[in-house]
Amino acid sequence: MNRKEIYIRATRSTPGVVFSDGRFLICGRSIPEKPAAFYRLLYDWMLVRVKRAEGTPVIELGFEYINSASAKWVFLILRDLAFAGISYRVIWYYETGDDDMLELGYMFKTLLCCPLATVEVENIPVTHQM
Predict the structure, then answer these.
(1) Which residue of 20, 40, 54, 125 is surrounded by the most CB atoms within 10 Å?
(2) Under 8 Å between Cβ of 32 and 38
(3) Does a structural domain hold residue 127?
(4) What CATH number does the domain containing 61 carry?
(5) Which helix (H) or strand (E) holds 81?
(6) Residue 48 falls within a domain, yes or no?
(7) Is the four-CA dihedral 24, 35, 28, 100 of positive or negative sign?
(8) Whole domain around residue 55: which residue ranges?
(9) Which is nearest to 108 in space by CA: 78, 130, 85?
């Protein structure tokens, strides 16, 4: 995986992605037909690039909706970064009033035992210009 940056524009079923200059951001709706096809690239890229980030990398996640298969992939990415000995922080964005997404953020925090801050926002951004 030799790419230095990844930009993926959000669609109706996939989140927008910005991985550039130490920024690791995934935001939008995540209900792809084939989650493995979408998230495998991100998984492989992050395992290499997050190691190279200066300081403690911050991974920003915000979903207006995420299905269980996508949530599993996000969890695997974060878990395997920790298994690789990489320390990182997570910022978990959730929309005002979306208690389910807030609860999912807390579940990830508990399962991963990583620094995870929840941040309430009016709307989850869904384009690659986040």
Answers:
(1) 125
(2) yes
(3) no
(4) 3.30.750
(5) helix 68-83
(6) yes
(7) negative
(8) 6-121
(9) 78
